Amino acid sequence: MAMAQREAPFPASTDAASAPVLTVDGVTLQYKTPDHLVTATYRVGFDIHLGDRLVLLGPSGCGKSTLLKAIAGFLKPVEGAIHLKGKPVTGPGPDRMMVFQEFDQLLPWKSVKDNVAFPMLENGVARNEANQRAMEAIDKVNLTRFADVYPHMLSGGMKQRVAIARAMAMRPDVLLMDEPYAALDALTRRKMQEELLQLWDDIRFTLIFVTHSIEEAVLIGSRVVVLSPHPGQVRAELNCHHLDVTHQDGPEFQMLTRRISRMLFEDKSVGH
Amino acid sequence: MIDATITKLTVKLTPPIRAEGEYTVTAPVGLGDVAKPLSALERLANNGAVRRGLILVALAVIWELYARWLNNPLSFPTFSATVEALWSGIASGIIPTRLWVTLQTLLIGYAIGLVLAAVFTSLAVTTRLGTDLLSTLTAMFNPLPAIALLPLALLWFGLGRPSLVFVIIHSVLWAVALNMHTGFLSVSETLRMAGRTFGLGGFRFVRKILIPAAFPAILAGLKIGWAFAWRTLIAAELVFGVSSGQGGLGWYIFENRNTLDTANVFAGLLTVMAVGLFVEGVIFRAIEARTVRRWGMQRG
């Protein structure tokens, strides 16, 4: 618990005093299955500031993906509200681009470049500018050589890179990522995590990242929201902006991951 | 025997511990090229058109030999006699004229059928009532043979092209709508959500996400619809055929059967098959190559 004291300082960014980009305020989410009304989250709240890498971490069944879907606008909160730049979220939109876990999120009938340009073209960006921004984004994820290739010719990791490029090229207010690396092999996942951090260092986007891996959360996040399961409630909000790849084998990183795993596994309420 | 089993069960298997090693990796030597081009014969065997062509040639040879052995040109003319009849039919211009009449009717019916199918499925994916309407209508009408509606069509539209178009629409509409709808339903949830985060909704969503994503199923529907329409039309023409003084291919077959000109009947049938092969092998194949196969939605 001494740990908690030592890492108390809040993000070192200068705009810590600015208004948050996105606020999640006392959100309760429910969805219906054929037999049940499931409460996914119960009165969950947190803020996201510009440039945050906020990770929603929790075991399966804590409603983290459902929460992300609600932020994306696919689900209405039963209670509470989600505000983006002061306006309530009412439906999905290109100001909150989402990267999914599944590889089939790319449009198979469009080349890599057209996939990345598509959301921009559909939202009134001129063809020239869209193509240029698409190529820049593809450059950033190191897929320049594959710009004219169709998605079915790419590996899983490459597809996820395209999806990230597509979301970033749109320059959303918040980038949502729903366990984007969960379906990748360990080596590729590690590489992609480093690439994502590099990318954030270059562009400084605002990110909400959902994962069930504690290591990934500490590595990717600048701030981690730990959710307890059935229904999801905020168990802790932790800062880890000072921990990156170089600290991964260090004691501080290990202590934080252990602290989080204690939170998740020693609670009687944990499902499995 | 018993001793051996007991030993197997009680002794724990322990593999020997061997020395570790680290090696430098080199390029393979002496294997020749890593990628070697296939021989001309292998490439020929890999060509689908060549394989299908060979099947056609084999069928023609079997036909010719059997007809010669049978030696009954009235009931089963030889392949060469049929080709001759076909050639003279084409040269005299009668087969092309008849074919054109048939194709015109067919294309009108097919086009209207497709538009109606698109309307029904668009309704079905956007509203729940539309879904119920489509599934009910499809369940009712899809099993009903188009030809069974012909007497009714004749009663309503008279002895002419409108009747034929009506039965073609009936044969195309339900099959295509059913396939399209199934295709739309099978579009993955991820792709749908991705489309919606791009800000797409309503008709734009259907056009830019659902239709391309469901294209393999839609294409299958188009093919089935085409085959149904073609079959229905030839059959309908065989039943009454002449529309506004001009008969189609079915009528040509019927006429020649009446005059026992069997070679011409076969020539007519051959034309029906040739058109079918052309549409399937050239037109639909070209569409597939440019779309679903290029996109990796169907293996080539």
- Specify the overall morphology of chain A: globular
> In angstroms, what separates the terminal alpha carbons of chain A?
25 Å
Q: What is the CATH third-level topology name of the domain at 109-300 in chain B? A: MetI-like fold
- The count of β-strands of chain B is 0
Rg of chain B, Cα atoms, Å: 29 Å
Quaternary structure state of the chains depicted: heterodimer
What is the CATH architecture assignment of the largest domain in chain A? 3-Layer(aba) Sandwich
Percent range for β-strand residues of chain A: 15-25%
Q: Give the count of helical stretches of chain B.
A: 13
- Which stretches of chain A of 5+ consecutive residues score pLDDT under 50? 1-16
Number of helices of chain A: 8
User: CATH top level of the largest domain in chain A?
Assistant: Alpha Beta
Structural class of chain A: alpha/beta
Describe it.
The complex is a heterodimer of chains A (272) and B (300). Chain A contains eight helices and ten strands. With 272 residues, chain A is an alpha/beta fold. Chain A folds into two domains: 18-95 and 173-272, P-loop containing nucleotide triphosphate hydrolases (Rossmann fold); 103-171, no CATH class. In chain A, β1 and β2 (37-48) form a beta hairpin. In chain A, α3 (112-122) crosses α4 and α3 (112-122) runs parallel beside α5. Chain A is globular. With 300 residues, chain B is mainly alpha-helical. In chain B, α5 packs across α8 (161-185) and α5 crosses α11. Classes of the chains: A alpha/beta (272), B mainly alpha (300). The A-B interface holds A 69, 72, 74, 91-94, 96-98, 100, 102, 104-105, 107-109, 118-119, 122-123, 150-153 and B 188, 190-191, 193-194, 196-200, 204, 208-209, 212-213, 215, 291, 294-297.
